[in-house]
Amino acid sequence: MFGLFKPQTPITNLSPAEVHTGLQTKTLLLIDVREPSEFEAEHIEGAVNLPLSRLSSEALQTAIVAAEARTVVMQCLAGGRSAQAVKACRDFGAAVDHHLQGGINSWKSAGLPTIR
User: Fold this and answer.
1) How is the chain split into domains, by residue range?
2) Residue ranges of the alpha helices (H) in 44-113?
3) Would the pTM count as exceeding 0.85?
4) CA 30, CA 16: separation in Å to the nearest integer?
C-alpha cells in the first residue's frame, strides 16, 4: 500500500526574466495553455498555443518534437492552468516540469512585451 504513491519532482517555477532570456537564446519552448481566443487577444512572442482543454499525449509529443533540445515551459494567465498542464504532461510520461510563475500576468507586470 505504501508503494502506491511516487514522489514527484516539484514544478520548476521560472520568472518572467528567465523565460524572456530563454526565448531570446532559443533554449526553451513556451507553450501557452490558454484557449485560442485568449491567445489571439494577447500572447508572448514565440509562444505556441496548445490549450489545456485539448492537451493530449499526441499533441504534447508533436510539441516536444518541435522543441528539439529546448526546455518545454508551460504558461497561462496566472499560473494555475500551466501547473495543471505540467501534471498532465507527467501523467502522459513526459519529462515536463517548468512553468512561467504567475503566467502572462507576471510577464506584463515585469514590463515585458506582448503581441496583441
Assistant:
1) 12-109
2) 57-67, 80-91, 103-109
3) yes
4) 11
Per-residue pLDDT of the chain (116 residues; tens, 9 = 90+): 444 555 567 899 999 999 999 999 999 999 999 999 999 999 999 999 999 999 999 998 888 888 888 999 999 999 999 999 999 999 988 889 999 999 999 999 999 999 99
Beta pairing partners, 13: 99
Q: Is 99 left (phi over 0), alpha (psi -120 to 50) or beta?
A: beta
CB 114 within 8 A of CB 107: yes
CA 18 to chain centre: 13
* Alpha-carbon span 25 to 7, nearest angstrom: 32
Cell numbers for 27: 533554449
Domain 12-109, CATH? 3.40.250.10
Q: What is the C-alpha to C-alpha distance for residues 23 and 91, in angstroms, rounded to an integer?
A: 26
Q: What distance in Å separates the CA atoms of residue 29 and residue 97, rounded to the nearest whole number?
A: 13
